[in-house]
Design a protein that fits this description.
Length: 507
Amino acid sequence: MITVIDFGGQYAHLIARRIRQLGVYAEIKEPTIKAEEIRKTETEGIILSGGPKSVYEKNAFTIDKKLLELGVPVLGICYGHQLIAHLLGGKVVSANKEYGKETLQTGKSELLKGLASREQVWASHGDAVIKLPEGFKTTGSTQECKIAAYENPAKKIYGVQFHPEVQHTTNGMTILQNFVNICGSKRTYSMKGLDKRLIAEIKKQVGRHATIMGVSGGVDSLVASVLIRKATPNIHCVFVDTGLLRKGEKEEVAQLYKELGFEHFTTIDARGLFLSRLKGVTEPEEKRKIIGKAFVEVFEKKVEELKGKHDIRFLGQGTIYPDRIESAKSSGQAAVIKTHHNVGGLPEKMKLLLIEPLKELYKDEVRELGRILGIEKEHLNRHPFPGPGLAVRILREITPEKIKILQEADFIFTEELKKSGYYEKTWQAFAALLDSKAVGVMGDARAYGYIIALRAVTSLDAMTADWARLPNELLEKTANRITKKVKGATRVLYDITQKPPATIEYE
Ligand code: XMP
């Protein structure tokens, strides 16, 4: 087993996920854990994660220094890399920031074994180690960061300033594999049997009571509801039509749950409520909060109604790990990036107990679990769609006209992606509507309409993302169709921003 210490970075849980992917069990612990407690576990290696603070800040996280003397290999990543240097007598300072892709020049190293002399890595930091502790040597540098990787082979302590766990560090898995080898861990962990374990847990938790669950048709709520249904047929699925859905979505979702044999499925038409509350609202977080609140109200009303007829005690949710970390619910230390409404204060208010069977998993694990459960590929490969829906893809104020334009444009883009086979090759792709207008010429007349932005990204977990290199012909065809067919749209742009620094959604 490998123990990962979480300093509140966006990626701490992802590190554990990657280690498990390599076939070794990994567990996350708080920085306050003592060396003595770790000694009692079967820890064969320790990874110190990244984190948003600076090691030299007052009250910054630190560790029991004895962790570095346990004799098990230690790998520091980003904050962890800086913390090891700081604790052992090196020097860390505020330095030139690196966000995104960098080129790492590698030297002779146990940790970087098998890598080329130049490697693409993904960095996200503002501090750097500028002096190493005694006994350490530099094994990798980038243009801005001279000590981007170091090691002390005698003590088996290693550090990397970049993130080997993210997909965009091309050979990050080789680095983690090398670390697992250095630890001497056996590769015996697998996802097989996870469905049975989770179903048994849910059965034990809910007993004979009923569960209510908000579903969206997305992969997470789908897999979670199928799991819960296998544990108890007494599940009531509720789908809220917020008026902020994609074209045809409401009908598709109802059909899907019907095909899957769910007996209790209700669609609530709440379009009027959501749109009236969002009228004139322009600030992104305010929009998210309004939607979250309206959602709770609509949902609560339904719960009260169903409670009159059934013994509903539980609320099922398809929350996955990144939802929690991006809403800063994990260690309470990560910065709030966006308020995701699906992790709000729902259960306490409704006096329901929460079932979140997927809360430790990443999207690719959820899809794998869905396959194990026998859900069709077509449903599992659906792109993620945010809870607040098109509201976060229409910049600033939302109006019925803008929703209509965006739905039509998005429909065309999705259709072209599916036809060309690029839907499956991208993590997520959608159209967004900017808050400005541009002049165009249609026929011989002047047109003045909205600007559509197309966004398509590749990613493994939405924690980082790169813009998808779609073929020019596909983009051109989409742009032509949109400007020709969608009344009110005069121009189409393609977004080439990575995450970080951007996010996937617009608001
Ligand atoms: P961002 O925009 O934060 O998105 O880079 C990361 C992933 O999360 C999705 N997303 C949401 N999902 N409720 C959700 O269920 C939300 O409020 C929400 N906001 C963003 C987004 O589509 C992407 O896949």
